[in-house]
Amino acid sequence: MSEDLYSKMKNGRSFFLIAGPCVIEDEVTMMQTAEFLKREAEQRHLTLIFKASFQKANRTSPQSYRGPGLDKGLRLLQKIRDSFQTPILTDVHECSEVSPAAEICDVLQIPAFLSRQTSLIECAGLSGKIVNIKKGQFMAPEDMGPAAMKVASCGNDKILLTERGTTFGYHDLVVDFRSFSLLQQLGYPVVYDVTHSLQQPSISTQSGGRPELAPMMAAAAIATGCVNGLFIETHPEPGRALSDAASMIPLEYIPALLERCLRLQTGKD
Which residue among 45, 127, 147, 207 has its CA within the 20 to 30 Å range from the CA of 119? Predict the structure, then answer.
């Protein structure tokens, strides 16, 4: 599946969508979210990759919810994949997680804070799966070239590069839209992480966010003509979400956001 999926992501006429909750929660919430996203993507002929993390290694507080763990989390992701026939993306944080995650997931994601971890990136590359490398908040777009080479050196050219904003002061991020063009020049599909770029990291005991800006930022990124995919964290009730509640957007807002971006891409806006 990964070869065909990567071809769609790289050569598709419309942007692809990576979307789902920040972290795996209860089965009802996860299945409800996947079903909604699958329906909305199919109606618009968009390729959907459902995302959720079985564990979040980078939390603001030791009391923050981290997820159900590798085994339980992957079982639920497998159920979602089988039930909705949709590709799956999840984070990997250590080399030991790569092999079990690769058995179920179509895309392995390198979190932004681990985007310079050579051994982890190489392990992901050796899996043969699509590897999505998130640009660290501390990295310039050009720095993603060497990161991508770590995957390519393993004989795997199925690489995605994701912009998620750059540290701006202590508790904010900013997106330099020149980044999309510079990343595109590296020759791999470019993804814009809409919701994480609107985070306000580590405010008090949790991260804040400005999710109300998501539609504008997503549309602006698509308008550059350099973005192949959108990454959006969403939840039926973000206020009750167990992780990144302040930056995820309500599931019900997804259709309007997608429509706005499609109109821009097709020149009908």
Answer: 207
Give first-to-last CA distance, the chain, whole Å: 34
Run of H or E residues at 31: helix 27-43
Closest CA to 141 of 194, 198, 200, 184: 184
* Residue 259 pLDDT > 60: yes
In terms of Cα–Cα distance, which of 119, 122, 126, 41 is closest to 87? 41
Element (DSSP H or E) covering residue 35: helix 27-43
Q: Is the pLDDT of residue 269 over 60?
A: no
Q: What are phi and psi of 17, to 5 degrees?
A: -125, 120
Bridge partners, 107 (sequence order)? 89, 130
Q: Is the pTM of this model over 0.70?
A: yes
Query: What secondary structure letter does DSSP report for 140?
Result: -
Residues 227-261 as b or e (16 or more Cβ within 10 Å = b) = bbbbbbbbbbebeebbbbbbbbbebebbeebbebb
Q: How far apart are CA 168 and CA 114, in angstroms?
A: 19
Phi–psi pair at 74, nearest 5 degrees? -70, -35
Residue 66 buriedness (CB in 10 A; 0-12 / 13-18 / 19+): middle
Average pLDDT over residues 71-87: 97
Note the pLDDT of residue 63. 61
CA-CA distance, 209 to 171, in Å (whole number)?
A: 10
Least confident among 20-29, 37-46, 65-74, 86-95: 65-74
Strand intervals (E) in the chain: 16-20, 48-51, 88-91, 107-110, 130-134, 159-163, 166-167, 173-174, 190-193, 199-203, 206-209, 229-235, 249-250
Distance, in Å, from the CA atom of 131 to the CA atom of 43, rounded to the nearest integer, reads: 27
DSSP 135: P
Task: Determine the angle formed by the axes of helices 95-104 and 70-84, rounding to 10 degrees.
Answer: 20
